[in-house]
Amino acid sequence: MSPVIIVLAVISAVLALTMLFTKNPITSALCLLGVLIMTAGIYGLIGEHLIATIQLVVYAGAIMVLFIFSIMLLNLNTESTDFKDKPGLFVGAIAMGFSVFGFIAFALNEHFANHRQDFPMGEFTSDKVAALGGNSKVLSHALFSQFYISFEVISLALLIAIVGAVVLAKRKFD
Amino acid sequence: MTNDVLIQVLAAFLFTIGMLVVLLRRDTIMVLMGIELLLNAANISLVAFSKSGGMIDGQLQVFFVITVAAAESAIGLSILVNLYRNFGSIQTQSATTLKG
Known about the structure:
Number of domains of chain A: 2
Shape of chain A: globular
Number of strands of chain A: 0
CATH topology of chain B: Helix Hairpins
Number of helices of chain A: 7
Structural class of chain A: mainly alpha
Shape of chain B: elongated
Radius of gyration of chain A: 21 Å
Radius of gyration of chain B: 17 Å
CATH class of the largest domain in chain A: Mainly Alpha
Structural class of chain B: mainly alpha
CATH architecture of the largest domain in chain A: Up-down Bundle
Largest interface: A-B, 82 and 69 residues
Oligomer: heterodimer
Distance between the termini of chain B: 52 Å
Number of domains of chain B: 1
Helix content of chain A: over 70%
CATH superfamily of the largest domain in chain A: NADH-ubiquinone/plastoquinone oxidoreductase chain 6, subunit NuoJ
Strand content of chain A: under 5%
Strand content of chain B: under 5%
Number of strands of chain B: 0
Distance between the termini of chain A: 59 Å
């Protein structure tokens, strides 16, 4: 177990908890930005360099800038209603969430300890990917040959979403 | 505990926190940020399982998930701007016009 991955995982867990409990939306947005950057670090450490780059450029770069921009545009300060004002709901949701997390963690431990060998390894092991010219080359080749229709469809969906966002933000409903 | 277990447990933890943010916070923008955290947790899980299984399908799926997340946040934030224009607030309890 690589110590750098442990450090990144602990930092992102702490940042996620801060994001949940802080009252200021801009602090939450910066914590989420930190979580996304740590995630990019984890992708890089397990050898997924292309995904790490895309995570940094698109997620941490574009999407979070959009979030911080709209927080500043709407001039949001501290939430006027405290989200802990119903203690029963708050404690219940936290307890439910962490019991679900406990079950998932237990199941994952069990899976990796006893049942991992039931699933055959795929074709793209680390050595094979390195021999084929690296992670980026293998992923791009699959993206533009096997998945090219999905690629075109997702680009069309992105275009429609951007046109829709412009229409929604421009129009005055009356 | 290996790297794979650690990364999967981290993904489950981030998913839990994202779900709690969506459930508990009252600002619409916090709900959108919670959705981003949920998608990010699912991405981590996809990439780590796919990597440990010697496949590339998970990584390719993550491309599409990131694109959908970008589209979703663009639409969501423009809806939020409209919400602010119409109700003067982005608290989830302020937009109750549809309540019967």
